[in-house]
Every structure is written in C-alpha cells, then in structure tokens.
Amino acid sequence: KFRGLTDISLKQLDLAELFDANPSFFENAHIEVPNFATLIDDAAKRIAKTGQSISVTRPFLLPAQREAIVLFQKALDQHNNALVKELKRTKSWDLLEMSTANLAEPIHKNIDFVRNSEGIQKYNSFVQQQFPEILTYLEEILGINYVLVDGRMMIIDQQTKAAMPPYMASTSARSLSGLYLWLKHLAKPNDLLMIDEPELNLHPESQIKMARLFVKLVNVGIKVWVTTHSDYIVKEINNMLMLSNNFENHENIMTELGYTHNEILKTNDLHAYIVQNGTIERIKTDHLGMLKST
Question: Are 104 and 65 in contact, with CB atoms under 8 Å apart?
C-alpha cells in the first residue's frame, strides 16, 4: 500500500463538460486519487532496497519533416517575433488565430531541439565518449563531416573539403543532422530513438548502411523505433538477423560481406510489424530471419 492521497474537487476535472451535465451537480463532489509524485518516490525507494537499478527510457523523435525544420526554423522564429510585435500593437487575438499553424507535438519538439542545438553542444553523450566510431560511420554514410565553427554547425564535404552551412548542404545532410547532434551530445543508454522514414533522400546503398547503423545503436544500448517503406532497410535488417544464427563458415562469410560483430541482430532484439489495411501484424522469425519482410 502506497502512502499519499490527494483530494481533488470533481469540478476541477471538467466532468460537467465531459458528461454534458449541469456544472452545479459536481460543485461539492470530491474524489481521492493517488499522489503520483509520492507513488513514484515510494516505488523508487522500494526498488532501491532490492539493490536493482531503475532504467529510464527517454524518447527522441525525428519526424519525416525534420529536413524542412532545419531549413525553416529560423524563419519560423522570425515570423513569431513579428507576430508578437503586431499583437502588442493591435491587441487583436483574431490575428493570433489566423497567423499560427496547428502543428503536431512531435514537430513542435523537433523545432525546439533545432532551436536549442547550439546549447546542447556543451554535453558529451556516452556514444561520443565510448563509441565515437558510430558518429564517424554516420558521417561516412553521408560523405560529409559535421563540425562546429563559433558554436554553429557547418558541413564539410569529405571529397571537396568545401565547408557550408546546413541550408547549402544536401537534403540528406540536413535531414540527419539532428540524429548526429542527439547521438553526440544527448543520447544515454536505454534511450529510445524514433525515426520516421530514415530512407528519405538517401541512395539505396546509404539506406542499407542506415540499417546497419540502427543495429549498431541497438547493440550499444539504444532502443530504435523505425517506420519505413524501404525494402533496402527491411531486407538488410533481415540479413543482420540471420547472422545471429550459427552456420558453416559464419566468420568467413561475415568478413567477405563486410559485417562486424556489432552488426549482428539478435532475434530477441527485434519486434517487426506490418501495418496495412487498418491492421497491425506482428512478423514472426525463423532461422532465415523474418518470415515476411515486404
């Protein structure tokens, strides 16, 4: 039994609106509900007494609109600043309604992430400290290097050595710049990376390498949630799943095909689903990988 109950007036819960009832019906009604801060505190103390650690999963989402956000975030901020000035002058709330866009929360959060990208660069993630080769691998996929100049990101082409701001770089470099920053500065073990359509703006060879990147991340302790239409990504994930089996000439085949041991995907680390016609189907696996991969 947990301690701590909070007394809440039912009027505070807007039940009148919920049930389309007279608000006076709930005027003096109260209900006792758990104090969730206290519940969490009690649970943490009980777990600590067992000697176990508490693992927290923090999601980080890269929506399909991520490239446009990188490109237009400053323009959005300039628009908002101009709108605030006009509101102060006119005091017209109709202007606010007409001039603001209704964006999904993940897009708002990604805009905030891009806006604060300079501030997060003072932090070093466990990926940067323990697995810097993962960051290098991501840059190699894109054929560029992400560098900081006076606290601002610049992109250097690995062939020409030309440096340019993100708005002049390729769409793929902009699209995955947020992933690079998050991995380098904020990612922690057990975090959840959620990325919508990672194949955007990538050639087939690069899509295959992105699949390998995701498995590398899983094998260092980052959970990865991907939604994709790319057969290249799905089939490469299937290839790495098959590498978890014991078969003849396993090591020789891995070497010949250029796989490393941190690109082996264990069956227990994969949950795959196909979403179609309003249904979600869990995909089963066997020694040949996913039984349905397209």
Answer: no
How does DSSP assign 244-293, residue by residue? TS--TTHHHHHHHHT--GGG---GGG---EEEETTEEEEPPEETTEES--
Question: What does pLDDT average to over the chain?
Answer: 80
Considering only CA atoms, which of 147, 179, 176 is closest in space to residue 161?
A: 147
Local structure of 27: helix, strand or coil = coil
- Residue 266 is encoded by which pair of tokens? 């264990």
Model confidence at 225: pLDDT above 70? yes
86 has a pLDDT exceeding 90 = no
Which spans in 143-221 are helix H? 171-175, 177-185, 204-219
Q: Cα(260)–Cα(216) distance, rounded to whole angstroms? A: 9
pTM: 0.74
Whether 174 and 166 have beta carbons less than 8 Å apart is answered as yes
Q: Whole-angstrom Cα distance, residue 71 to residue 213?
A: 25
The answer on pLDDT for 131 being more than 50 is yes
Q: Round to whole Å and give the CA distance between 44 and 38.
A: 10
